[in-house]
Amino acid sequence: MGRLTTHILDTAHGGPAVGVEIRLFSSGEQREQLELAKSNADGRTDKALLEGTTMVTGSYELEFDIGDYFRSKNAATGEPAFLETVVIRFSVNGDENYHVPLLCSPWSYSTYRGS
After folding, report:
1. What are the backbone angles phi and psi of residue 52, rounded to the nearest 5°?
2. CB of 25 within 8 A of CB of 60?
3. Is 81 helix (H, G, I), strand (E, B) or coil?
4. 12, burial (CB in 10 Å: exposed 0-12, middle 13-18, buried 19+)
5. CA-to-CA distance for 34 and 6, rounded, in angstroms?
6. What is the pLDDT of residue 77?
7. pLDDT tens per residue across span 63-101
């Protein structure tokens, strides 16, 4: 079985984004919250979001509360923040490893499939 991990990098400050609330949802026929985590000092979650029997082929959503993070850094560019919650929708094969990093600033973000 595979596993799903994530990592948040703050490109405006050049380091990991610490303390960002992260929610993982299944996004199939019925949307269900599967995990709630906060990014640690390395910008990662303390454990894989999915692994073993919980890593099932299907579609998922990751939500990152980036607006709160940049407000805590006094880097918000007004209210409301341009980016409040970043949502990434993706699909996985349960037998493979996926790393879904978020690279973000108060004004933009990008992601890619890592392994």
Report:
1. 65, -135
2. yes
3. coil
4. middle
5. 15
6. 61
7. 999 999 998 888 666 677 889 999 999 999 999 999 999
